[in-house]
């Protein structure tokens, strides 16, 4: 579903990604961890060209994102992003936040989009919030709306960039529950997170990014039980 080969990304003179390789198969959940500033967000942002890769190859569901003729809006629809700070449109209702994408990008009718949106709100346990505005919601509710909005695009994969890092601790669980459901339903997911419990329970593979490359790429059991890599050991010592 997603293939990243030898991805390099520099900001000015600083090379942040120095040859990143990641393969994500259909239905896989890949969790990415690593120190702050190690380039986790940059990897996700390169996948849908919110950042322009410096070099390398990225294929998303057969779209070559480095090919100038690729419709980048289609790539962003197929591999859609959920952000740490939700990025909801503040002037639009919850339902309109969710239906905008399908109407604009998929050409769905307003009525069909509203039906889809209401179903998705049920799915994220927010059925009664359709007419609310984002500022009337808690952080956990906002993030569940953002997930419903992502799902409304009927993406092939969802990229989560620290989806629970901005939440009060008591609201983290409700968002992780929704993400677990998606994983169980077979959604392809790439998740940058510090939630090690989620990684252990839900991930098919866990990746440790440090010093511009993927240092470790293993199933969670091996990843956590036997962290041989010294910098991973050090990192886990700080976060667990
Ligand atoms: P992480 O998500 O792992 O914390 P990021 O991918 O956000 O790390 O950032 C990796 C490095 O790239 C950091 O040093 C950050 O300051 C730098 N960086 C990220 N985005 C930009 C940008 N748009 N311009 C300049 N530097 C950036
Ligand atoms: Mg980040």
Automatic annotation (TrEMBL):
It holds the Pfam family ABC_tran. InterPro entries: AAA+_ATPase (IPR003593), ABC_ATPase_HisP-typ (IPR030679), ABC_transporter-like_ATP-bd (IPR003439), ABC_transporter-like_CS (IPR017871), MetN_ABC_transporter-like (IPR050086), P-loop_NTPase (IPR027417). GO terms for cellular component: plasma membrane. The keyword Cell membrane applies. It is a peripheral membrane protein. Residues 2-236 form the ABC transporter domain. Signal peptide: none annotated. This is Probable glutamine ABC-transporter, ATP-binding protein (GlnQ). One of its GO terms (molecular function) is ATP hydrolysis activity. Belongs to the ABC transporter superfamily. It is found in: Cell membrane. Keywords: Amino-acid transport, ATP-binding, Cell membrane, Membrane, Nucleotide-binding, Transport. CDD domains: ABC_HisP_GlnQ (cd03262). PANTHER family: AMINO ACID IMPORT ATP-BINDING PROTEIN, GLUTAMATE_ASPARTATE IMPORT ATP-BINDING PROTEIN GLTL.
